[in-house]
Amino acid sequence: MSVESILRQLDYGSEMKTETLMMFFGLLLLVSSSSGYSQAYGEPNRGAPGDEMIQQYLQATTADIESGFGDDLGSLEHWEGNRGQFKQEYLHMLGLWPQPEKTPLQATVTGTIEGKGYVVEKIHYQSQPKLYVTANLYRPAKVNPGQRLPAILYVCGHAMRGRNGNKTAYQSHGIWFARHGYICLMVDTLQLGEIAALHHGTYREGRWWWLSRGYTPAGVECWNGIRGIDYLNSRSDVDSERIGVTGISGGGAVTFWIAAADERVMVAVPVSGMADLESYVGNRVVNGHCDCMFLYNTFQWPWTRIASLIAPRPLFFMNSDNDSIFPMDANDRVIHRLERVYSLYGAGDLVDSFVSIGGHAYREDIRKASYRYFNIHLKQDPRMVADSEVDLVTGRGKTASHPIDPQKLRVFPRDSDLPSDEMNTTIDEHFVATAQTEVPSANAYQTWKKHLITELRRISFNWFPERVSEARLLRQVSVESVEMETEPGITVRLRKVKSPSRTEDVKRALLYVRSSGSETSGLELIRKVSEEGDLVYRCEPRGFGATQWTRKNPPNYVERSHTLLGRTVDSGRVYDIASVARYLRRRHGEGIGIHVLGEQSGGILAAYAALFEPGIAGVIVKDIPLTHMDLSSPPILNVLRVCDIPDILGLLAPRPLRVIGDLDHRIQKTQAIYSAAQADTSLSLADGFSGRWPVPGLNTLIDLSDSKDVHQRVPVLIAHRGGIVNAQAPECSSEAIRLAAEAGLTMVELDVQESRDGVPILFHDRNMSKACGIDGSVNDYEAAFLKRTSFKGSPLLILTLEDALALCRQYRLGVMLDLKSGRDDARFLKEIDRVIVEHGLGHATISISSSLQARQQLKHVLFRPTDKQMIQFREGNDVDLKGTFWFGLPAQVTSSQVVRLKQNGAYVFPAINTFRYDEGNHMESASKDIERLRAAGVDGFQIDSVYLNLLP
Description:
This protein is an alpha/beta fold and 952 residues long. The protein is built from 29 helices and 28 strands. It starts with a helix and ends in a 9-residue tail after the last strand.
């Protein structure tokens, strides 16, 4: 059983008995000692050749960053002088700078519950438009008119309460506060609330573009809390001068986020919410935490500086002595550093720590101490708390007991009540805005370039020196291969691949960047681009070949640790390439130009290396992604807040840049930038270098409104049957969609039906018995039931259309909609149109429906020509078919008709499906159809995967 699965069963916030928790953590944890009594989170990886190297590098970098905390302690004047800059950097690292607009909260109470001495209001508010926060507000049953009470913002930990929201696990705290004269707003988290979104983007889900975008769910949780304080201040029964914040585990971390960001928090009581870099990175404790626990440490802060921003406001640092994910050695370091900061203010009495005996949970002593601390500082009441153990949540799972039935605490009682316009589930694509850079004018190029590079150095490559150091030769590995050190503790391999017979014949040196594949990867590209007189080297940056390290998903230890140190693995590789290039430049002299080249992500790394190493004379790249939002793109911290790949390529001007492969319209921006730099002749573009077809499925989303984009992708391939179907990937399943993207298809056909409660569902068959073993149709069941239903013989669950579109957006797949069933009314179709737009697929969706109602309501979808248009077309008339597509069987369209359809503006997508052919000779028949239709100039095919190999 994994660490995470045990934690899920434990439910961080449940009021379990100490001995039960101790038993589970005793089975769970392998504790080793790295220094003193430090607590390591499991054994270090030792299965790959680069494990020790990268772990020692991470530890050394951690020690260097944490040692900087002493610089904060010179004097109060020094600390206060830096505080303004610190605050801005802190917000930036959360994705909150520039600060978001405080839009109307639209706070709504959906119901109330009356308890003994308290009332619960079920509330939702929008921290940003369509970003819903579900919450329960606990208040005293009786409040005198005009009376203003102290308030507590309670932020929840990782308690798994499903559709009820994790707030229901902590209800006993809200009840206690209400009974003792407080207003307590208890808010759900993004992932574990009533509208379940995502915290695990880099921990488990492979959303490495979060790093490039500078998005962390910690920023959303902080912002939701800040807006929660706005809501509290809007109430007539809240004293805005007496607001506190608290929570355990994830809630403890968010307590720090909010209190450091918002000075309206007068008292903070985080329970098990923060360790430090020595613990997270050096002792691998990052592996026990999801992404909401961390910001991206862009400015390389010693971690305790975050908590120090709370000073000199009262702070009670609460922990447990046997907590594996907030270990005591880290707790001791953090509190000692905090005491030093508070002492600068002469306020050492306002920071305190508390250690409970036991594991990761609330216990009586923690509750009593935290309640009393709030009473002291918000009510000037120092008396001991005697009633902390009343109305507790006890047990777990089916045996759990709650003072209030969790389902009654739902803000949205029924699934149908959930807001259809919510952006919670796609907030990672919107919360941190991407930069919108303009192409500079000819006389402004140098200024434009200087600004972007300065900003890249500030927030993406902050850890880089002014110039990357030259690689140092360590040892000869073989006749043609050497080992080099690029920065302290990092070794890479450099291999000579090709050289002229005589040294004096060398004209230039090519440095190929390995980014994946085997020892022989890159040989084809090298053969294509190398010339007579070229000396060719192959560089293995860190993490490849001889320095490959263990990678487990989850928890992605090495990759996530880098972000806590203000960098990414790939920015380290940029450093390696630049360092080796500088070595080669010195070795071969000024007369030999050093050119870097790479494929896919390696090409992007080569381009960045050239950006930061002026000794690189030129760049050659092949099959590169053209945005950092692509899954295949190397993550570079915060880069999308500055610019994107077309801009990076443009920044190389006037140096020679050769781009090879299947390109789309975005490369035009690079062309325009080179033109502005008056370096048009230095840019070379070559389409169609090799491959069966373009692979935009993992790279770029098709834009059907741009005919140039479509034509550059020909043949556009649309996966029939909801993706690539096999024994492990049922029709219309998440796995089928994923496999379609992995195979490089451009679009996927999605069959849509309507549930009994009007939710669009992804399902093909009229009856569910064959696929799911359930009698009846999709129309007979509500969406909540269908979403819990798996395909027969598979753990995969039925998808809503919204779930499917989220996957398509993630995988950059366009969509062909086949509306199988539904009332065909405006409401149902508007819901389909909404989710298409919300997921950014408005220019990437077509529908084969012939319904007039669908044409009217699906405003962002391309349709087939109308019957009237096709009658006119078949009569030989010219018809304006722009914005439409022809779809049908190969036998239904002649080669001459294909030509005429395209001349009239329509796309042409014939269907190459197995059931259209006789079983005995279907491969031969399909091959003939594909050959004829491609010769006629069709734009692509809706196609079954069995026929993909028939394409050249």
